[in-house]
């Protein structure tokens, strides 16, 4: 019998991934995953196609989404899990994030135009994809198509990354507010990729905001790097989540399933969802 492995952090074309919901389920099946949570940014649109196909492939799924937030000027991502997909609270929060991103995208386009790289919204928005979250990665791909850069990675490194000439911060939701909204939706709030948070004071303050878990296993970080987060989770009685943060061609060095959780963690998340029914 194959070991139970579940990747609880991956993205599809419904946000900034390059694989469609069907393609990511097929890939999960091919590499032998038993469980999956699609955590698109500010969107649960992927589940419409993913759920029925996952059932055909005998892959269990847990609802998920990833939300950007800010704590004292520091960017913090929070993963939401085990909430009802039709939750009006989550649906409204996604809608607000889409509006926020739309305003920010227009600010970025103005900056790109000023720097001699004009791009129109129709260059990166597909009107046929309802519920899709549009952000900087889509603009980066449009920059590649226009010949302004050779890769999306270069677009971020030179222009779209934080502090670069065409970066626009946009409006934001606080981390505390984000966690509260996830709880209102009867979901679980998990700190995403704490490995990338380089300020201990900020991290400690977030841990005091009633989060439910920490993403202890992330991307291709080695086991030694994960141990710090496992220890913190155990000391504080928090869920130990994990996943690859697979995006496809935006992060080609990260494979689906490169980090995962075991069956015990997956069942704990599943149990929380079932208790809300």
What would your notes on this structure say?
There is one protein chain. This protein has helices spanning about 20-30, 45-55, 90-115, 135-145, 150-160, 175-185, 200-205, 225-235, 265-275; strands at about 5-10, 35-40, 60, 65-70, 75-80, 190, 215-220, 240-245. It is globular and about 55 Å long. The chain has nine helices and eight strands. Helix content is about 40%, strand content about 15%. Helix 1 runs parallel beside helix 2 and helix 4 crosses helix 5. The longest helix is centred in the middle third of the chain and has 27 residues, at about 90-115. A five-stranded mixed sheet has the order 4-5-6-7-8. The model has no long low-confidence stretch (mean pLDDT about 95). The chain is α/β, with parallel strands linked by helices.
Radius of gyration from the alpha-carbon trace, in angstroms: 18 Å
Number of strands: 8
Strand coverage percent: 15-25%
Straight-line N-to-C gap:
31 Å
Unreliably modeled segments: none
Give the key terms.
single chain, 277 residues, alpha/beta, 5-stranded mixed beta sheet, 3-stranded parallel beta sheet, 8 strands, 40% helix
How is the secondary structure organized here?
Layout: E1 6-10, H1 21-30, E2 35-38, H2 47-56, E3 60-61, E4 64-71, E5 74-81, H3 88-114, H4 136-146, H5 152-160, H6 175-184, E6 188-191, H7 200-207, E7 213-218, H8 223-236, E8 239-243, H9 263-275
Parallel strand pairs: 1-2, 2-3, 6-7, 7-8
Antiparallel strand pairs: 4-5, 5-6
Helix pairs in contact: 1-2, 4-5
Question: Summed up, what is this model?
Answer:
The chain is of the alpha/beta class and 277 residues long. The protein has helices spanning 21-30, 47-56, 88-114, 136-146, 152-160, 175-184, 200-207, 223-236, 263-275; strands at 6-10, 35-38, 60-61, 64-71, 74-81, 188-191, 213-218, 239-243.
């Amino acid at each position: 019998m194959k070991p139970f492995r579940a990747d609880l952090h991956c993205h599809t074309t419904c946000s900034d991934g390059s694989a469609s919901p069907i393609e990511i389920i097929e890939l999960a099946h091919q590499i032998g995953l038993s469980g999956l949570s699609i955590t698109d940014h500010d969107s649960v649109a992927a589940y419409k196609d993913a759920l029925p196909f996952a059932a055909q492939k005998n892959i269990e799924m847990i609802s998920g989404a990833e939300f950007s937030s800010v704590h004292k000027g520091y960017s913090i991502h929070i993963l939401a899990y085990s909430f009802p997909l039709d939750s009006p609270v989550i649906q409204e929060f996604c809608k607000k994030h889409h509006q926020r991103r739309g305003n920010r995208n227009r600010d970025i386009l103005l900056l790109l135009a000023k720097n001699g790289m004009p791009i129109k919204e129709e260059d990166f928005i597909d009107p046929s994809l309802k519920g899709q979250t549009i952000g900087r990665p889509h603009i980066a791909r449009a920059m590649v198509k226009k010949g302004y850069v050779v890769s999306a990675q270069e677009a971020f490194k030179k222009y779209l990354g934080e502090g670069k000439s065409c970066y626009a911060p946009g409006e934001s939701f606080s981390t505390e507010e984000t966690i509260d909204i996830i709880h209102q939706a009867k979901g679980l709030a998990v700190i995403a990729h704490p490995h990338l948070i380089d300020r201990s004071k900020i991290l400690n303050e977030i841990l005091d905001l009633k989060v439910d878990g920490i993403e202890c296993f992330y991307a291709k970080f080695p086991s030694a790097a994960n141990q710090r987060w496992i220890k913190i989770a155990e000391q504080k009685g928090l869920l130990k989540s994990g996943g690859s943060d697979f995006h496809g061609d935006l992060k080609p060095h990260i494979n689906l399933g490169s980090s995962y959780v075991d069956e015990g963690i997956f069942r704990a998340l599943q149990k929380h969802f079932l208790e809300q029914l």
